[in-house]
Amino acid sequence: MLYVAFWIYNPVTVGMSTRGSNDNIIALLVFASLYFLLKRQYVIAGLVYGLSVHFKIYPIIYSIPFYFYIDCDRKAIMSGKKSLCSILCSNFFTKNRLIFTLVSASTFLLLTGLFYKIYGYEFIYEAYLYHFVRKDNRHNYSVYFYLIYQMYDLTSSTLMAILMFIP
Question: pTM surpassing 0.85?
Fold first, then answer.
């Protein structure tokens, strides 16, 4: 309850919610994905994770840790019997990992296809492509915030925005 209260009453969370940011919904979906992964319910976890990535693209960064968490022999790693690298390489493709990957990718692709059919290219541009060319000098969590802020009016700022998006 303490962690939930900290999240709900966090001034950053409150501020972002009041200006229309849906990051709290994204966090809920990612946490729900993690919950179902911990419960070993890989189909439900894949559905929720695919929805979270469709909702906003940045949860894609969690795909690698989620993937390697599934079927990882944590006891062998913790006891020192096997190295992390040998375990990750020995069972890279497992049934559960493939189920999670296929369900989450299918959910993402089906939802994206549905919304493309409804809204056309405008959906693809606003949801995904816009991030490559945007000039947002007030971006909340960018490590390049100050540089973007200082270069906002310069003609080279579009190129800088694209280069800063790549990492």
Answer: no
